[in-house]
Amino acid sequence: MRSGKFVPRHLKSLLIESLESSPVTLLHGPRQCGKTTLCKEIGEDLGYTYFTFDSDEVRISAQNDPNLFLRNCSERTILDEIQRVPQLSRNLKIADDRNRKAGMFLLTGSSNVLMMPDLADALVGRMETLRLHPFSQQEIEQSQSKSFIERLFSGDFPTCSAEALSTNLAQRIVLGGYPQVLNLSSDRKRSNWLKNYVENIISKDILDLSKIRSIEVLPKLLQSVAHLTGQLLNISDIGSSLQMNRNTTQDYLTLLEYQFLIERLPAWYTNRLNRLIKTPKIHFGDTGIACALLGLNANDLNEQRTLLGHLLETFVFQELKKQASFSDQQYSFFHFRDRDQVEVDLVIERGAFEIAGIEVKAGASIVNSDFKGLRKLKSTCPDQFTYGAVLYDGEVCASFGNGMYMVPIRMLWESNPKPLSY
Known about the structure:
Elements: H1 12-21, E1 24-28, H2 35-46, E2 49-52, H3 56-64, H4 66-71, E3 77-80, H5 88-98, E4 105-109, H6 117-122, E5 127-131, H7 137-140, H8 148-154, E6 160-161, H9 167-175, H10 179-182, H11 187-209, H12 217-228, E7 231-232, H13 235-241, H14 246-258, E8 262-265, E9 281-284, H15 287-294, H16 298-303, H17 305-325, E10 331-337, E11 343-350, E12 354-360, H18 372-380, E13 385-392, E14 396-401, E15 404-408
Parallel strand pairs: 1-4, 1-5, 2-3, 3-4, 12-13, 13-15
Antiparallel strand pairs: 6-14, 7-9, 8-9, 10-11, 11-12, 14-15
């Protein structure tokens, strides 16, 4: 794998397009995922002035007189970490009304600003929102291949063979996608960086958003979720293990979602079936953080196959979310499970009329029964269903008939993998 340094971001072109058409653009995503670097790179080319609300002086100035602060901004301004000054939301609306030009403000947020009603409500219809994730595998490998998610909806999986990832798969899961982690030279340094990263978010960003008293429980809660990533979310069970009631557990999980540390994957359902489970799954935002909290290196993960399977499901989910974020198509993500435990790990909707499914396997072989869930999904929505794929750590990409494919996991980021040599 290449170093995370100087990696071009696939979202860049969409961000520039947004600045050319929308008065206010919000780029949000977790801290240290590269938002500021990308904004400064674009801002330098397009003549933007940069302010960060991580600076005490800048933040206090904006808090004391938000109207004057915005009036004194240049015609093109980057406001970094906007969630730290929620008072600006109404004044941004006024500034937009006063001088409605494309590209006036480029905002960044390290909390999910769409979950902060003051800002989201004030700028509805005026602000385009883009999500920046940690590096995708395509970005790490600097691959220009057609994205997997696009190929999935067209069934673009020609028969071919490729080398299995094997131990390299666990290494990718343990690394995750944070730029600074990819530049560190040892498991110890990477694990320490990720654990310090979580500690800083809890002690700084979460305290800025809330006045919770028992902040010491959050690391334990995160570790519990790390054990459960890729599984159905049972809030009561999580709370009881930490001696918290259901409402408190729910509130704390929401705070972790604000910071992009965890994410709920809703269940897909239809009125045609009444035996579907509607409980969401829980996924970590980055598998590298999950592994650091669990104290796992790649060798440990390879030996714990059940945990590898759950973390691999999260890894695939996040890779596809990253690909969707820099696509001009609209994708929505779900999981599918009925009361007979027939399931599909990922159900992806494109627009209103197309559905595809993905099942994720950590093993190196595929059997006919691995397609059971995908076939059930297809029978449930035959007019909408396009293709299904079982991703596995094997060597052969091939059709299993009726729009179903077995696909090596490395084809998530390689559309033309190097063929096996014998």
